[in-house]
Amino acid sequence: MIATTIIYTIVGFIIAALGYTLFNASERSEKGWRVFGAILFVIGALIIFGAELNLYFNGTQEELIKWMFWMKD
């Protein structure tokens, strides 16, 4: 459960970082890329938020405590 959460968090971060880069790197006249970057950023943030909520609601309490406080086995 934690491994999939980490993978989805990394994927969401990559998508959000790409969206942020597109949003800031495009010129002011290219509104299409700015909108696309903003949409990618929101989608990436929602993937990260969904992965954390999935761990919170479907994970066991031991997994959640290990994830929140970075505890070792």
Characterization of this structure:
With 73 residues, the chain is mainly alpha-helical. The chain has one domain. The protein contains three helices and no strands. It has helices spanning 2-25, 31-58, 61-69. α1 packs antiparallel against α2. The radius of gyration is 16 Å and the shape is elongated. The two termini are 15 Å apart. The model has no long low-confidence stretch (mean pLDDT 84).
Question: Topology, please?
Answer:
Blueprint: H1 2-25, H2 31-58, H3 61-69
Summarize the structure.
By secondary structure, the chain is an all-alpha fold. The chain has three helices and no strands.
- Which regions contain 5 or more consecutive residues with pLDDT less than 50? none
**What is the count of DSSP helices, taking H or I runs of 4+ residues?**
3
How much of the residues is beta strand, in percent?
under 5%
Number of strands: 0
For the sheet with most strands, the description reads: none
How does the overall form come out from the CA principal axes? elongated
Rg, rounded, reads: 16 Å
Distance between the termini: 15 Å
Helix content: over 70%
Helix-strand pattern: HHH
Annotation keywords:
mainly alpha, 73 residues, 3 helices, 84% helix, elongated
